[in-house]
Write a structure and sequence with these properties.
417 residues; disordered N terminus; Dna Ligase, domain 1; single chain; Alpha-Beta Plaits; DNA polymerase, domain 1; five-stranded antiparallel β-sheet; alpha+beta; 13 strands; 3 domains; five-stranded mixed β-sheet
Length: 417
């Protein structure tokens, strides 16, 4: 029987993904300091080339700061639609070859190759897959192969750019030992600073600290950190097809054709599940809108979109789908919105046209919703409907506005008077 410690886990990571796609579009950019992000003074760096990193530039840095560090850097605004297309292309290649894979972000994948040594050899198979991806897409990609997800990811980072690294079973701890603690995933500047103040700078030193002491220093995070330092990670590879969608729907108190009301509901539902996306640090690649008419006929329509979790991006697509779908001009009893094709990622990667203010705005909105609840902030179009829902829950019927209903009906059924 194969134990968890004897697994073979490969981690693939597309190197400087956005930058690499830009270089495919324009070969003259290869080897030059390239920034992808907002081009205004208020813009933000979403990605940068290795050449730009030598000047101290990193993602999430204000574009103005980056240009001060490297005045001759080339800036591209970014093309999320193109990046999503290449991501799906690589995903398709992996899905055709791998027995079990997990897409952990728009440009990262984990593959469980346990048991493959009996047939082809996990290392040989992984190298062949990397070569196939490079041959078909022309994108540089690195991989690490080890007994668990943690070590394979660290190995990938060590193999970059455009390389490969295998950590044999049993050598996980020795591989990690000489590294700085920041090399471990999820160890940020603050945690690293706390450890340094206590004399812990390398992974080896961290692994030798008693786990009870680490727990006293860092709480439960200290236990997880001790496991990482010792190369222990039993996290499974979650099959991509098991990644769940996020959805919501609403059956109305009375069937309606009031477009003002329906659009308000779409805004409310989209904001609600977009907030859930950001809370789970996920991006959606597909939107589905569902309508159920008064005669109970149900129709739906979906659209593949560039990966996003931003309200203003998702809402535009939701409204577009609803407009195309609602062609019967009949009373509606239910509408629903679903986001699917979920991958790990955050709002930052789609900020090519956004500013620092917009980043701060989303962070502030989510902070308020986390503290006071999802209804603490909403667009103005939803205020009236929110109050009506509160009245209904309290048993108080809102003032009915028949003129709005008749006005909407008259637009689509002029024979009604």
């Amino acid at each position: 029987m194969i134990t968890l410690q004897q697994r073979s886990i490969a981690h693939f990571d597309l190197d400087c993904f956005f930058v690499s796609v830009e270089c495919l579009k324009d070969r003259s950019l290869i080897g030059k300091p390239l920034l992808v992000g907002g081009q205004s003074d208020r813009g933000v760096v979403a990605a940068c080339s290795y050449e730009a990193r030598r000047y101290g530039i990193h993602s999430a840095m204000p574009m103005k700061t980056a240009m001060r560090l490297c005045p001759h850097a080339i800036v591209r605004s970014g093309d999320m639609e193109k990046y999503s297309m290449y991501s799906r292309w690589v995903t398709d290649i992996i899905s055709r070859q791998a027995p079990l894979y997990e897409q952990s972000s728009i440009d990262e994948f984990y593959l469980d190759l346990t048991g493959m040594d009996k047939f082809f050899g996990a290392e040989k198979w992984t190298k062949a897959l990397r070569e196939r991806i490079i041959l078909e897409t022309s994108l540089p990609i690195s991989f690490g192969l080890a007994s668990n997800k943690l070590v394979s990811k660290v190995a990938t980072n060590e193999a970059k750019p455009n390389g490969q690294l295998v950590v044999p079973y049993g050598l996980e701890r020795a591989f990690l030992a000489p590294m700085k603690v920041e090399k471990l995933p999820m160890v940020g500047k603050e945690t690293a600073a706390q450890l340094r103040r206590r004399g812990v700078e390398t992974v080896q030193t961290l692994s030798e600290v008693p786990v009870q002491l680490l727990e006293a220093w860092l709480g439960k995070h200290g236990i997880a950190l001790w496991n990482k330092a010792n190369g222990i990670d039993e996290t499974p590879v979650v099959p991509f097809h098991e990644q769940k969608s996020i959805s919501t729907e609403n059956t109305f108190h009375a069937d309606t054709i009031d477009l003002h009301f329906l659009h308000g509901e779409l805004v409310r539902m989209t904001e609600k599940i977009a907030f859930e996306l950001r809370q789970q640090n996920k991006l959606a690649g597909c939107i589905t809108v569902k309508i159920r008419y008064a005669d109970f006929q149900t129709v739906s329509r979906q659209m593949t979109i560039p990966y996003s979790c931003a309200d203003h991006v998702l809402l535009e697509k939701v409204k577009e789908l609803f407009t195309k779908l609602n062609d019967r001009r009949q009373l509606i009893r239910l509408i629903g919105v679903r986001f699917s094709h979920l991958v790990q990622g955050n709002y930052q990667i789609s900020l090519f046209e956004d500013t620092q203010e917009k980043i701060a705005l989303y962070q502030a909105i989510d902070g308020i919703k986390n503290r006071f609840g999802g209804d603490a902030l909403m667009r103005g179009v939803n205020v009236e409907q929110h109050n009506e829902r509160k009245h209904r829950k309290a048993g108080v019927l809102p003032f009915y506005k028949p003129e709005r209903y008749l006005k909407e009906v008259a637009k689509t059924r002029p024979y009604v008077s």
